[in-house]
Amino acid sequence: MTLGFVRPARLDDVVEITRIQLSTWRVAYRRLLPQHILDQLDEDWITRRWRDAIAEPPTPAHRVLVAVEQQESPGGPTSAYVVGFAASGPADDTALAPDEDHTVLAKAAAITDVLVEPRWGRRGHGSRLLAASVDLWRTDGFTTALAWTFADDRVTRRFLESSGWAPDGVSRSLDVDDLLVPQVRWHASLETEEGPSVTAM
């Protein structure tokens, strides 16, 4: 029997979170970012970043969640695998486009990462991560959620759209080694129990 669930990340998840981020980026973003940028991702720096995010979050509303797939064999041992993660917190300047008014940040949460390792995709792990995040945002009193995606990241865009999110008309471009990579911002209202919804990812 297979069971999927979400829990808060622990320090002993850091290595696996880093591995998932590196492997997923190198697969999902290979057509969006220069190959040499993906090859040069600093594993040690990413590991330190996740360790700090879990051990010393800036506020109680900054959270890292992990998706776990648990497999039980009749009469045998139970195996559990961290297969994805999500990171979010109060929206800050990184949620803004250049020269955008800060009023958009009022009562807004921002999801900075939601990744499921490709080999574990289409099992609902992304949906569970997003649903758990939404519940926590509402508990914290946020009324809106924001997320940036690469304009050409069709998988993430399709996932957010099917989960009740929509582009809010704001865009920006990231300068990646002199290559401008366009991004689109998405938003979802948290004020109704009906939305956002979730679908499998």
From TrEMBL:
<feature type="domain" description="N-acetyltransferase">
    <location>
        <begin position="4"/>
        <end position="191"/>
    </location>
</feature>
<dbReference type="InterPro" id="IPR050832">
    <property type="entry name" value="Bact_Acetyltransf"/>
</dbReference>
<dbReference type="InterPro" id="IPR000182">
    <property type="entry name" value="GNAT_dom"/>
</dbReference>
<dbReference type="InterPro" id="IPR016181">
    <property type="entry name" value="Acyl_CoA_acyltransferase"/>
</dbReference>
<dbReference type="Pfam" id="PF00583">
    <property type="entry name" value="Acetyltransf_1"/>
</dbReference>
<keyword id="KW-0808">Transferase</keyword>
<dbReference type="GO" id="GO:0016746">
    <property type="term" value="F:acyltransferase activity"/>
</dbReference>
<keyword id="KW-0012">Acyltransferase</keyword>
<protein>
    <submittedName>
        <fullName>GNAT family N-acetyltransferase</fullName>
        <ecNumber>2.3.-.-</ecNumber>
    </submittedName>
</protein>
